[in-house]
């Protein structure tokens, strides 16, 4: 297939997958905050017309949108100037149609120690740095780190690095610093890099892009379905434009047949990709 067809296919794919996507970002990017800190959450969107808004579930209320008793909305962002322990909960972005982003946990500590851990899921194989921090002044004191209730490490400077995380590192972490206290617990989730193979030997060939994150497989499947629909619509347009083609003399008022220069490359691209 030629370059034009490929570009057309790419363009259509981008057009299709640019809807109903939003990524939730948090600043500062950590899962725990001290009381009176401020936080800003935003929905990074590809399609602003989808009307993404922040929602949260806390002990104070379920499914509350930003501005409804919490936070100050600004477009698809939301900020809280002084957080309190009751702001602890799960936060997510939701579009008008009800599609949702990933969900994050935010914990506000009323004490004087927090665990600085990643607020977003960590990709398998990456390093994770945990930092046990006191409220004031920020310290480099010795800290104990716990995972699922048991002590895993004591670090003299309060920093702990987990190298090349795997799914088994997923769990509930907390830390403590003597004379200051204990942090609340936070869940660290790890995103699998390769699809699990049932006991099969690991492949030596480089992993295909499809091998990353199971949820992306679902996404790609949906994408293919959407792309196939576009193909089908193009086909229908072609057929109808041929059927309306005059058989005898061309009348001046006859509408111009659909520009098949636009449709042909798309059809060619599909034929090559899907072996139709
Ligand atoms: C928020 O709370 C509602 C009602 O209890 C529940 O249906 C929903 O699943 C919760 N959402 C999240 C992300 O926890
Ligand atoms: C939030 O934390 C709870 C445990 O405290 C955990 O079960 C849940 O999976 C976490 N959710 C996310 C999205 O990290
Ligand atoms: C953490 O707390 C335990 C029990 O309260 C205490 O024995 C320990 O010394 C503390 N760890 C640090 C590093 O302060």
Automatic annotation (TrEMBL):
One of its GO terms (molecular function) is transmembrane signaling receptor activity. It comes from the Eukaryota. One of its GO terms (cellular component) is external side of plasma membrane. Keywords: Disulfide bond, Membrane, Signal, Transmembrane, Transmembrane helix. Residues 111-191 form the Ig-like domain. Gene3D superfamilies: Immunoglobulins. Residues 1-22 form the signal peptide. This is Ig-like domain-containing protein. It comes from Anabas testudineus. The lineage of its organism: Eukaryota, Metazoa, Chordata, Craniata, Vertebrata.
């Amino acid at each position: 297939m030629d370059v034009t067809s490929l570009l057309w296919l790419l363009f259509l794919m981008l057009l299709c997958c640019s809807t109903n996507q939003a990524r939730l970002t948090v600043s500062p990017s950590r899962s725990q905050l001290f009381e009176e800190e401020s936080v800003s959450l935003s929905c990074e969107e590809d399609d602003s017309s989808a009307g993404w808004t922040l929602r949260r579930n806390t002990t104070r209320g379920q499914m509350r949108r930003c501005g409804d008793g919490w936070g100050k909305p600004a477009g698809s962002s939301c900020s809280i100037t002084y957080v309190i322990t009751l702001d602890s909960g799960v936060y997510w972005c939701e579009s008008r149609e009800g599609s949702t982003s990933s969900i994050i946990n935010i914990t506000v500590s009323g004490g004087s120690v927090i665990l600085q851990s990643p607020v977003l899921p960590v990709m398998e194989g990456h390093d994770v740095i945990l930092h046990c921090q006191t409220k004031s002044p920020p310290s480099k004191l010795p800290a104990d780190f716990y995972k699922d209730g048991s002590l895993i490490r004591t670090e003299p400077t309060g920093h702990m690095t987990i190298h090349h995380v795997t799914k088994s590192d997923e769990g509930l972490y907390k830390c403590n610093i003597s004379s200051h206290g204990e942090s609340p617990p936070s869940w660290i989730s790890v995103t699998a890099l390769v699809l699990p193979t049932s006991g099969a030997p690991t492949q030596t060939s480089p992993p295909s892009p499809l091998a990353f994150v199971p949820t992306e497989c679902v996404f790609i499947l949906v994408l293919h379905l959407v792309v196939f629909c576009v193909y089908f619509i193009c086909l229908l347009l072609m057929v109808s434009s041929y059927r309306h083609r005059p058989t005898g003399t061309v009348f001046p008022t006859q509408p111009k047949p659909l520009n098949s220069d636009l449709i042909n490359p798309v059809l060619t691209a599909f034929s090559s990709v899907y072996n139709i």
